[in-house]
Amino acid sequence: MSERVIPVIDHRMRTLAASLPATPIAATGLLADALGRPLRDLRISVTDRCNFRCNYCMPKEVFDNNHVYLPHSALLSFEEITRVARVFVAHGVQKIRLTGGEPLLRKHIERLIEQLAALRTPDGQPLDLTLTTNGSLLKKKARSLKEAGLNRVTVSLDGLDDAVFRRMNDVDFPVADVLDGLAEAQAVGLGAAAPGKPSGLKINMVVKRGTNDHEIVPMARHFRGSGMVLRFIEYMDVGATNGWRMDEVLPSAQVVQRIHAEMPLVQLDPSAPGETAERWGYAGPDGHHDPSLGEVGVISSVTQAFCGDCNRARLSTEGKLYLCLFATQGFDLRDLIRGQGSATDTSPSAPNRTHPLGHAASDAELASAIGAIWQRRTDRYSQLRASLPPDAQPTGGGKRIEMSYIGG
Ligand code: SAM
Ligand code: SF4
Ligand code: SF4
What we know:
Layout: E1 15-17, E2 41-45, H1 78-90, E3 95-99, H2 109-117, E4 128-133, H3 138-148, E5 152-156, H4 162-169, H5 175-188, E6 202-207, H6 216-223, E7 229-234, H7 252-262, E8 265-267, E9 278-282, E10 295-299, E11 312-315, E12 320-322, E13 330-332, H8 333-337, E14 342-344, E15 354-356, H9 363-375, H10 381-386, H11 403-406
Parallel strand pairs: 1-13, 2-3, 2-11, 3-4, 4-5, 5-6, 6-7, 7-10
Antiparallel strand pairs: 8-9, 9-10, 11-12, 12-13, 14-15
Helix pairs in contact: 1-2, 1-9, 2-3, 3-5
The structure holds S-adenosylmethionine and iron/sulfur cluster (2 copies).
């Protein structure tokens, strides 16, 4: 009898301790990493589960009935998430994005949004609080999300053609329901723009050459002038399960060319430092950007690395801090806040030795630990990959975390 082999994607095993540094680091809002990059953006994954099986993210063959998800006790509670987020905000984070898995599957997510919406930056400003969703539950939840204090949403949508969309999500989910969710989000005000931004409501389309690239122009046509910003994302080599190949990546430059051939575009200035998307506005008859027609964005994570000003940290569902989307290891903040953390010895004869902290870390201790981790950060995976031949990936040892585990 042959034994069934279940692929193990256990990112949960490879953990780095988040120890308190020997010299405390206060949260001043001015933290910078080893390459001078500030900490401004925190992405929080609230679940590793999803009701879709997008083949570039959670392929069915791997994420099947045998896949073991995190037990509830392993997840950070809403109070724990808010506490960690508060410390990140004290270190300079201005924007928080909830993600997953599918974040709207986490029960009572509105309660977390309420708590996060109450946080303030060191100069008293509210956060830019947003969420990325596959849109399947948006029609039902848009109003309660808005009422809880969510500012904006980003909806992932990989095509308008129902057959293409159903194939991409691989659970036969109809596109019409996501479009209804988008309309509801717009109706309840989740499309309101943040100051200096063109629109709050964004649509992300992952482009896979040969699978949905023929949907680029119909998608652009559909959302032109809608008040929503459509963004095209290059298919990335995240995780270890999607069988990524370079020849399935359609470079963003070609996306822009295809749209420009039918609906002329002009390049726009970035809206903020560290912005991942390059912006292209639809031109009016005078050849200049016509704001009433809106804009598209392209996110060239593969062909144009933007590690140089990457200011994003990622907190996993069970409280690990990841410094890069392509990381293989995370730092265990949950241990620290649940009283199983460690601290670096101060004796000069043992500079790297640690001892058990012996108590749940205080906010100041948590700030110190996060500060020390960020200050040592040198991650720049996409930049390194860009210097290698096509299909080659920088090796760092260990399996990379999955997108469904850490969010986008
Ligand atoms: N389930 C939610 C959703 O789909 O919006 C949130 C989590 S999902 C992991 C976040 C984003 O990552 C989505 O926009 C998705 O399209 C994108 N994504 C997942 N795998 C990707 C890949 N291999 N390359 C590029 N983007 C990817
Ligand atoms: Fe689920 Fe989002 Fe991944 Fe698709 S991209 S499988 S919707 S987590
Ligand atoms: Fe940031 Fe890592 Fe992406 Fe570079 S590869 S932009 S460091 S998340």
